[in-house]
Amino acid sequence: AQSVTQPDIHITVSEGASLELRCNYSYGATPYLFWYVQSPGQGLQLLLKYFSGDTLVQGIKGFEAEFKRSQSSFNLRKPSVHWSDAAEYFCAVGGAGGFKTIFGAGTRLFVKA
Amino acid sequence: DAGVIQSPRHEVTEMGQEVTLRCKPISGHDYLFWYRQTMMRGLELLIYFNNNVPIDDSGMPEDRFSAKMPNASFSTLKIQPSEPRDSAVYFCASSLDRGGNEKLFFGSGTQLSVL
């Protein structure tokens, strides 16, 4: 069965520092992978997605993610965090043929001045 | 486009009462999803529709929950009778007809509190 694991419940990063949020997935076929961000009181917004091709995917707001099949990972990165990046981040996996995107438990990002 | 529209934004009700949550998907999107978000269980898929037809309702917690999509521009999620453990944020999302590889567009959610 497909699943998504985000090992870190919360992470605190200083403004201007780099960020990496971890995501591991389990899926029996070629996965479709997503990162969403949720600001307080808001719905989820897509940051980026990976289907195929280049394993390094660029998204909005300066985020990128790298797909590593051998590690079943899809980690999200940003070289320099801004205070406005404080939010909850969700990794998700879906697949063709059936439509049931599964979300990880989320990682809450705190940004300190 | 105004995006996915949910109403109400907040709902406070007493145990045993009927609750109806509403959703208007983005025009042209063939898939509609209802999710529930809680601290304990995270984001759970309750049910999804394709072209107004329920495809998978295996995530609906029990018979007290029901969802309908009478037309392409409107869906409801009903809880009858409501219980305190139903308190959560309920999200509606929609997507184009591309299967699991298309991104989801989420509404702002309905914060439900059952007292």
Give a count of the beta strands of chain A, DSSP E runs of length 2 or more: 12
Element order of chain A: H for helix, E for strand: EEEEEEEEEEEE
C-alpha end-to-end distance of chain B: 36 Å
Please give the radius of gyration of chain A in angstroms.
13 Å
Overall body shape of chain B:
globular
This entry's quaternary arrangement is: heterodimer
- Parts with pLDDT < 50 across at least 5 consecutive residues of chain A: none
Structural class of chain A: mainly beta
Overall average pLDDT of chain B: 91
| Separation, N- and C-terminal Cα atoms of chain A | 41 Å
Instruction: State the low-pLDDT regions of chain B, or none.
Output: none
Mean pLDDT of chain A, as a whole number? 91
β-strand number of chain B: 11
> What Rg of chain B, in angstroms, do the CA atoms define?
13 Å
Major interchain interface with per-chain residue totals: A-B, 25 and 21 residues
The helicity of chain B comes to under 10%
Largest sheet of chain A: 6 strands, mixed
Coarse morphology of chain A: globular
